[in-house]
Each structure stands twice: as C-alpha cells, then as structure tokens.
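Project standup — Tuesday

K.O.: blocked on the structure for the chain from last sprint. Re-posting the sequence here as requested.
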Amino acid sequence: MKNILIACSLLFVFACDKRNEANTQITLTTTDISALTSNSVTTGGNITSSGGINITAKGVVWSTSNNPTILLSTKTNDAGTTGFTSNITGLNADTKYFVRAYATNQSGTYYGNEISFTTRAANSFGTVTSANGRVWLDRNLGASRVATNITDTSAYGDLYQWGRGADQHQSSWRSPANVNLWQGVNGINNPCPTGFRLPTEAEWNTELSSWTTKNTDGAFASPLKLTVAGSREITINGAGTSGSYWSSTISGDGSRYLNISSAGSFVLTHNRSYGGSIRCIKE
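H.V.: unblocked you, prediction finished:
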C-alpha cells in the first residue's frame, strides 16, 4: 500500500509539473513580410500569451532551411511588448528563406508559424521617366525584362490581388479585406522596391493624358511600355488583348485600376479579389 501511495504521489507531481509547464508556454505568430528587396525584408511577431513569466528575448530567426531556430539560424533580438517589428538585412538576392518569430522565457524558447519568401533578383529593374517627368520602374513587378512588344509574355510579370505584398502570395486573396493597404511608399504590404509605391488614380490619369493614342498602341509607345497581361478572376482573362494596372485608390468595395485595350484605355473600378499588374512609381 505504501509503494502504491508513493507511486501515486510521484504521478501527481509529474502531472502537476507538466500542467505548470504548459501554463508557462509562450504563444505567438509571425507577421506577414513586407518591404521585400533583393537583400532585405521586414517581418516581426505578435505575442498572444507570455506564459505568465517575463519574456527575456524575442525576435525572428531565418534560414535557407525549414524550421529555423535560435541555435542553428541567424536571429534578431527586438524591442517591443506584445508586438514587434524585425528588419532583416544582408540577405542574398534571388534566394528562398524561411522565417519564424521566437520568444524566450524561463521555461524555454517558443516559435510562431513559419513563413517563406524569395528575395528579388539583384538589379532586376531599371527606371524610365514619363512625358510628365515622373520616374517609374521600367517593367511590371515580377517581369524578367523590359517589354520588347506589347504581348511579350516575359514582360507580363505577376498578377496581384489588391493589397497583397510581394511575398510569393500575390495570387492569394487577403481576408479580411483592409483598405489601409498599399497607401504610399510606407504603406502596409507595399510590394514596390524602396522609394517606390503604387500610383494613385490621378497619377494614372496624368500618365494616360500624355499618350499619343488612348489604347494599347499608346500604352506601349509610352516610356512605360505597358503590356497586356490580362487579369485574374477565376482564371486569367484577356491575356494578349488587355491589361489591368492597379492604383492605390479605393472606390467603395473595389479599387481603381487602369485598363488598356485596343478599344480604348480608361481608369475603372475592379473587385479587389481580382488579380492585376503593378507598375511602381517613385515617391
């Protein structure tokens, strides 16, 4: 009987220790990436529970291998309380990385969800100056070269759903919707390179007014050499015949975009779940 009581007591202590350990665990998530360049990215974390113990370190870990840890990967040690921002620099161009938020307390180190991203190719774009004196990227985001003709598929680039960052999820709709995205050079999820941003509706209209003809011929004849990559709804529509270029301007449940086709070019409203091209303008 004595041995049974001792065994039961040890079992109770073990169960209590495991319960206490569970109560001290940190729970956290990794922030979606933004401001992606060829050698840097911004991310961070959000701590939803500290486990009731003081947090002694927090930041993000990243590696070219899955499941980065503080022991086997590069890490930051960031300030902040429940939420923190981490600026990662010194990355290699055109390289896939994995990143996780982490936080440490007396009971151990805990990690948020893993996010992957691929840095941009080095010097993958140049700039052009439009007839109105504004500086733009010389190609669509995701395009491998400046267009050689209006149906140059290598110059089509990616089709972004409105508000997505350049985080390899360009074609995944962001839910819930957030109309504060893509607003200015420091806007949330700004997919453009440093110093560039989405044009506004007014800026697209100003560009359009300088074209010799308000159609696809004028679009390609302009310094921007715009292409007809179409748009993504359920499938890709209009590739080779029309182009849809997002602006940062909100319009009710949709957002404004420049549509180009042989029949004419206009700024219209698109459902934000559709995918469109992005051409960035310098701030």
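K.O.: great, moving the ticket to review. The first strand starts at residue 27 and ends at 30. The longest helix spans residues 2-23.
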